[in-house]
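Q: what does this look like with alpha-L-fucopyranose bound?
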Amino acid sequence: MQSIHAQTSLKLWYNKPSGKIWENALPVGNGRLGAMVYGNVGTEIIQLNEHTLWSGSPNRNDNPQALDSLELIRKLIFEGKQKQAEQLANKVIISKQSHGQMFEPAGELHLSFPGHDTYSDYYRELDLERAVSKTTYTVGDVQYTRTVFASFPDRVIVIRLTASKPGSLSFTASYSSPQPQVDVKTHQSRQLVFNGTTIDHEGVKGLVRFKGITEFKPEGGSSSSNDSTISIKNANSATIYISIATNFNSYLDLSGDEQKRAASFLSRAVSKPYSEMLKTHISAYQKYFNRVKFTLEPTEAAKLPTDERLKNFSSVDDPQFAALYYQFGRYLLISSSQPGGQPANLQGIWNRSLRPAWDSKYTININAQMNYWPAERTNLSELHEPFLKMVRELAVAGQKTAKDMYGARGWVAHHNTDIWRATGAVDGAFWGAWAHGGGWTSQHLWEHYLYTGNKAFLQDIYPILKGAALFYVDFLVEHPKYGYLVVNPDESPENAPQAHQGSSLDAGVTMTNQIVFDVFSSTIRAAEILKKDKAFIDTLIRTRNRLAPMHIGQHGQVQEWLDDIDDPQDNHRHVSHLYGLFPSNQISAYRTPELFSAAKNTLLQRGDVSTGWSMGWKVNWWARMQDGNHAYKLIKNQLTPLGVNKGGGGTYNNLFDAHPPFQIDGNFGCTSGMTEMLVQSADGAVHVLPALPDAWSASGSIEGIRAIGGFEIVRVEWKNARLVRLDVKSTLGGNLRLRVPNPIKQSSGALKLAKGENVNPFFKITPTPKPVISAKANPQVPELKKTQEYDVATLPGRVYSFYAQ
Ligand code: FUC
């Protein structure tokens, strides 16, 4: 019965409980609160998180000793003494204080149901169309149902327990927490209350106070309590409300009142009828979720429970599973990133461990950015806000870091940050001496502008772009051998060439050259649009002209470093030098064919299977390579149970991405990549179906994704690999240049073949400097699939429809 239903709807569902395994449990969240629902029968576990519950307190972690040694470190690197430079950098660049604080769990609510250890007809699901989780089972002749959701408008987690026979619901509730400083008490046999303060970490005092109130509202039956448990006996049903709050106001201010906050969220929620709460929750969620529909025909394989589909995915024909995973990515972003809240961290908003891997913080040499790749593309632009706000805050915090550590103007952030907006260098110079977390994250502000056309926003964030550019104007130095302006000290994230005796330190790293190029180019464009800073534009243009171009090396690869020292056997998870292919657009099928060919070689040399997020990034790259089948192969590699990919990641039963351990970036990266397979807009046109894999080509459609220039791709429909219907809504007006796989016609209006460059200013691209090509490289420019290009003059607010010719 369940399977037929599940096949036609967007549900994760299972016929067994999670047991002890957190990665079997199902996530719900409203951006502020997160919960993992185990669906265990005898003792249910609801593991709880709150977005501002972090170790530590406002702090900085700069190492101002860097400034005095900067010249010496640079000299050592330019002389090829990288190891020595790294040893020095470990002393003077890497933080002597916090290496970043930890995102912390709030605890667990346990509900014990006496006599429920033997049961039948078990089923649990997460309904992605309603953001509601449900568990049902039968004991004796009574059917029990538990519904859990994290209400968006009401700011509480709601658990509803029902039984098919009156008077048959009895349970005892208790709370446990890994937090060492937490008190639990009960209040009037109806509330379970906890109060705590987060832990100290790496010399930073834990000062986040948190309060949780769980209120029980049974219908019928009786309630009783002792010091730390609440018992409900013989009720007909019960509703449980969980409210959690902290004293966090901002990364600089912990003067909030967690007691008042938790109480006020709760009192507003309990006064509402359950059915109304559920209704308003679903409609708040669907405001975002319903914007995009992705339809791939379900096959027989889609009838099985989610964990079995995952097991089978790489060997059977189950295209709809990819669509389910796609929407799960959007579900996760909606649930972990809401305006006014914290951005989704390494685990979104779901963490049960007091000392989570990599502190569950923000790694900004790839991972946190990847979380936000689906934001604009999959029509969740408002949910980009928490991340963009973090960038604004880093731009303030990072000014002192730029000045004290590097004597530079502007602002800088290194490879990690946390809720306190730490901008110093952490972990060790091998990873931490990379100073481009600011430069890269600043590009999300520009991307938000390109998708929305919001000029007031551009005006507002322009100083942040300018600050990122200013930092590089001051930080770049001339390379004594090549003459280019380069960053030194630098590194290609977390990778070291063999030639450097195990040290990652270098100067003139490819990814950095690409990031600086983007920071300068977007700042120049923004200044032009806003008609300001003429002299600064000139400085940036002159400086940009002196950056190192990309190099194509002896193995036909895009060089990762300025010297041709890549190892074609290197299968490192970071392929940072393809930042220029995605998310940036400096490597293009149409504008830079040699680099495009070299990027393909790099991807082939690096291989497919890797950690979860690395495979997610590769889906985007193969989409940009216009190779849908290879992109789909990566999706298959990623959607594989953990342990199958030798030495690589995969996916857990609850469809969380496995680095391993769980990292949410891979979920978001793959969702972004699937969008890129269907529509791209970074290369001068709205390119429809650039990388449709054979597995999806028979028929399908996607509705509601977005493109640069304010275009909403209302509907793309294909049959037998041909585009049969396309509806595009223009929100800003301007020329719509379409690049499509087969000739199309328009029912009304003048569809013209495209001529010259796209005149729509949002599609203006700064030309990529000519690459330097090694004599041994011999780039074989790959043959591209045939496309057709059209220009349509659009008006704001109108929808334009096209059909296959
Ligand atoms: C970077 C990656 C690791 C991991 C960590 C959170 O350091 O190299 O693979 O994803 O971030």
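The longest strand covers residues 43-54. Residues 1-7 have pLDDT under 50 and may be disordered.
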